Amino acid sequence: MTHGALRDLEFDLSGVGVRFSDLPEEISSLLESNWSAFSTERAPSPVLDLRVEATRVEPFEGRFDPKAMRAEISSEWARYEMLEGRVEVDARGTGRVVVGIDESTRPYFAFANFVRAALAWRMLSRGGALLHAAGIVLGGRAFVLAGPAGSGKSTWARLAEEAGGSVLSDDLVLLDGHGDGIEALGAPFRSTHESTLGPGRWPLAAILFPAHGAGAALAHVSGIESRARVLANLPFVADGVAGDRRVTETIERWVASVPTRVLTFGREPAFVETLTSF
Questions:
Q1: d(CA 136, CA 200)
Q2: For a tag site, which of 8, 12, 106, 182 has the least CB within 10 Å?
Q3: Three-state DSSP class for 199?
Q4: What is the secondary structure of 169-190 as a DSSP string?
C-alpha cells in the first residue's frame, strides 16, 4: 500500500456531490489544492461515491496517454481502464478506483481522468454530461463552444474574457439537466485556464459550433448535424451510444431545449456583442 495516511474528501460541484474515500496522500494533496473552490465538509447526496484502492508500483514507463482509456458502458454500470488502473461504477454512483502509485504526479492525473469519466457517465442519469467545449458566462447566461482540439476553443474563451465575460472552462464543461432546463455548472475541469468562477449554475443559452472568419455571425444548423456534432464532443460516453440509451436521450433533450448555432469568429471579441444580444 501507499505510504502516509488515507483521507476522505467531499466536493460540491455546484450541486453535484462527489465523495472519495481512502485517498492516498499522493492524490489527496493535489486534489485538495486543485479542487479547493469546491471542497466541502458535507457534499449533497453524492452523484459519485468512489473508494480508492492504491498500490505502490514501479515507475510507469512511456508517455501518459489519457486517450488510450478503454471503456465498457451500459445503463447499469461502467468500467474505464488504462495503464495506470481502472474505475468501476454502478447505477447508484458507488464504485472504486484502482490506481498504481509511483513517485511522479502521473497517478494523480490518471485518477482525475477516471473521475471525469465516471462523472460523465453518471450525469447521463440527470440529463447531463461533460461536453468537450469551452464555456463562458455573459449576462448571467452560459454559452458553450463545442469542438475538437485545435478548433479555437481556448482562443474564444480568452477573447470573451478580455471583453468582460467570465470563463467556465476552455476544455470541458459540466452540463446538468436535473431541473427544468439545461444548466452549465462551475466545476474544476478547466484545462490550463485560470477561471475566476467558482461554484455556480447558469442557464445554457446556446450550444455553438466554431467556424473561422472575419467579424462575427451566427448561422442555423440542422437538427441532424447538431446531434452528430454534440455526440462527437461527448468524451467518455459517446462510445456507449449503442448500449446506453441515455446517451441518445440526453443529446435529444439538449438539442430540443437549447438553440444550436454555428458561430463564425475571428481574432477579435466582436462575437461577445452578438451573443449578448442573442
A1: 12
A2: 8
A3: coil
A4: ESSEEEEE-SSSS-EEE--S--
Write the CA distances from 240 to 96, 198, 237, integer angstroms: 20, 31, 5
**Size of the chain, expressed as the number of residues it contains:** 278
Grid cell at residue 124: 447521463
Domain boundary residue, one of 126, 144, 161: 126
Residue 201 belongs to domain with CATH number: 3.40.50
Distance, in Å, from the CA atom of 141 to the CA atom of 278, rounded to the nearest integer, reads 11
d(CA 103, CA 247): 38
**Alpha helices in the chain, H assignment, sequence order:** 25-34, 106-123, 153-162, 223-232, 245-257, 270-276
For 60, 120, 146, 171, 233, the CA distances from 152, given in Å and listed in that order, are: 33, 23, 10, 11, 14
Residues 122 and 258 in one domain: no
AA identity, residue 177: G
- Taking alpha carbons only, the member of 161, 274, 170 closest to residue 215 is 274
Same domain, 169 and 240: yes
Asked if 176 contacts 201 with a C-beta cutoff of 8 angstroms, the reply is yes
Bridge partners for 224 per DSSP: none
Domain that holds residue 48: 7-126
Are 173 and 135 contacting, i.e. CB atoms less than 8 angstroms apart?
yes
pLDDT digits (tens, 9 = 90+) for 146-191: 998 889 999 999 999 999 999 999 999 999 999 889 999 999 997 7
> If 0-12 CB within 10 Å is exposed, 13-18 middle and 19+ buried, where does residue 277 land?
exposed
Q: What is the pLDDT of residues 80-137, one digit of tens each?
A: 999 999 999 999 999 999 999 999 999 999 999 999 999 999 999 999 999 999 999 9
- CB of 189 closer than 8 Å to CB of 172: yes
Domain boundary among 96, 126, 156: 126
